[in-house]
Amino acid sequence: MSHRFSIAPMMDRTDRHCRYFHRLLTSKSLLYTEMLHSNAIIKGNTNKLLSYSHDEHPLAIQLGGSDPKSLAEASVISEEYGYKEINLNVGCPSSKVQKGRFGAILMKEPKLVAKCVSYMKNSVSIPVTVKCRIGVDDMDQDAQLDRFIEEVSSEGCNTFIIHARKAWLKGLSPRDNREIPPLNYERVYKLKDKFHHLNIVINGGIKTIEESLEHLNHVDGVMVGREAYDNPLMLNSIDKEIYKETDNSLSRTEILIKLLPYIRSEVNKGTKITHVTRHIMGLFRGFHGAKDIRKYLVSLNNAVNPVDNFKFFLKETTL
Ligand SMILES: Cc1cc2nc3c(=O)[nH]c(=O)nc-3n(C[C@H](O)[C@H](O)[C@H](O)COP(=O)(O)O)c2cc1C
Fold this sequence. Notes:
This protein is an alpha/beta fold. The protein is about 40% helix and about 15% strand. It folds into 2 domains: about 5-240, Aldolase class I (TIM Barrel, Alpha-Beta Barrel); about 250-315, no CATH class. The protein is built from 15 helices and 8 strands. α1 (about 15-25) runs antiparallel to α12. The radius of gyration is 20 Å and the shape is globular.
């Protein structure tokens, strides 16, 4: 499974509908779920949380947590559901997550992360990977990041996805923590130089294919979050430009026609049409009339036959 290009895990965004839509645009990129806490998987509505369409593959699940046994148990369940990789979140700075002693705060506890990875690895046969930051708070020196990577990789984690900015655990919201601490790609490149044998994936602020290709001169993979979501047409050229496959890019209308059977089957199962269509809004970014299209798509929830209305809209509108 290739990490050359992946779409970042994003809470409230990369749900199964979003991933299905993204998969129509790129067959090669690796997709990630939103973060799911290990306890939610063990004690919650497992089937609702973990179900997905097999068309979404290659698909990785991201877990949150810091109890090695629970993470191992959640990993076993995830593997049974067919996920191809289990990623541990060591990057989320939210105060709620900090209180639960998981996410970015774990960068301060490399031994605990190594133990979690060890338990997870020993319970499943699929890869266990880690997504982290270049640092947290005052723990932002190369030597500290090196130590973190050394400890965790010694337990068999071979792939690290590094958000190239540190997180401030006090005083910044999660959103600010994705904007304010400056990006430092050089530190991620340096990590790859030092840990040649590891698969290093860079993340943070990447907006174009050209930037992605430039990063790929230094590291093994690129992960893109917000730009992929807000401008999904970018994904149209990943297979060709990043994976050197034949060009299968589609027009907006072709994409939506391909999505239609999925929307129909979801609506027939009781899903509100907007639960799917909310993820396609970015397709109309910069498009004349985008605001009206968005308004129209939201209004479909009140329609008697929302899918037929959507089909009619596709027929009548030049996109
Ligand atoms: C709405 C939103 C939700 C996010 N949720 C998660 C998450 O569940 N797990 C995670 O590791 N990172 C999460 N992130 C961070 C992204 O995965 C990514 O690291 C970050 O946005 C930087 O990449 P980008 O500049 O390409 O967006 C989230 C980001 C956004 C914008």
